[in-house]
Fold this sequence. Notes:
The complex is a heterodimer.
Chain A (H helix, E strand, L loop, with lengths): L6 E6 L2 H12 L3 E6 L2 H10 L3 E4 L5 H6 L7 E5 L3 H14 L4 E6 L4 H7 L4 E4 H16 L2 E6 L4 E7 L20 E8 L2 E3 L12 E7 L3 H8 L5
Chain B lengths: L6 H5 L3 E5 L3 H12 L3 E6 L15 E4 L5 H6 L5 E6 L4 H14 L4 E5 L6 H4 L5 E3 L1 H16 L3
Parallel strand pairs in B: 1-2, 1-4, 2-3, 4-5, 5-6
Amino acid sequence: MGGERVKIFIVGGGKEVDFLVQSLLHKKNKIVVINNREAECLAISHAHNVQVLCGDATKCFILEDAGIKEGDLIIALVKKDFDNFVICQLAKKVFGVKRTFSIVSNPKNVDVFKKLGITTVVSSTYILASVIEQMAAVSEVINYLPIGEGKLELIEISLSNFHKICAKKLADISFPANCIVGCVIRNGNVIIPHGGTILQSGDKLTILASVESREDVVKALTLVNK
Amino acid sequence: MFGIGNKQRRMTRKYYLIIGCGRLGATLANMLSLKGKEVIVIDEDKASFRKLPAEYSGFSIEADGTDIDVLESAHIMRAEYIFAVTDNDNANITIAHIAKKIYDVPNTVARIYDTDKEVIMQDEDITTIYPTKLSLSEMKKLLLWEGKE
């Protein structure tokens, strides 16, 4: 599967298309964009060196004009799930495109569309939900205790795989000023950490920080992967 | 989650589902209801139900007929017939595919205007009605009679 140029068709979408085109072009793929809104078409063609066709991709003649017969992959990103379905089906059954991708707004349609023969189906709601879950998991695990006449704060945080600082050496983590990692509780044992201590999932960190730097500390601690 | 037709369910299939209460949908619904069938009409716009005459005795649901939760609440697993007759070809195509391939509705019918989309309706055991084709064949009949005038 090395280095073959793939011809990709992207249909619809808003701002995501810009990002997609950029990242796909990077890999030297051939990209054709089909969009029904003239303003968006102009914006995309000005920003990127790609072919842009303005039209309704649920119409056979538009897909044909776009040269879909040589397509390897079609990515359907229009608003209505049923429009994405038809775009993928036309590409597959009329024009022989082997791989079809559709975004769906109703998460139930992920299973439905897969059963109906669309190669890959993604629900934006599912992705959002898992990001929220990640964030909730992260924010639940912080405890605060004010000490030192209200000038200091003891911040306790339990690490999980989500946290960026997990699996890092303490010396490699850029903590904000005015804070220090006092101790690490790991499997019931208290560790007084040094620069070479590598943080693990499940570790409970106790951090001493000035009240003013609490926000920065929490931000630095709760950076998540991805 | 999906209603898979097993023997027992097939034997008790009785609903007639009509998705889209336009002129066609409303007329169909009323006709079936007058014949004593159990009819459920679904349309996103409740104003469309005004097309149903007073004697219509079936159900009407104001909802999105392309949503499988809506279809399930309209008993699609026990539907004998489903008519996808919204004003949108793409919605009708999707509804018909869902009805046939996921719920195995014995008689799945869709009204499609764009004849170019024929290929995706073929070999799916879905009955597709193309008004353009029907109109053309009626007009052809008229043209053949013209010579006899």
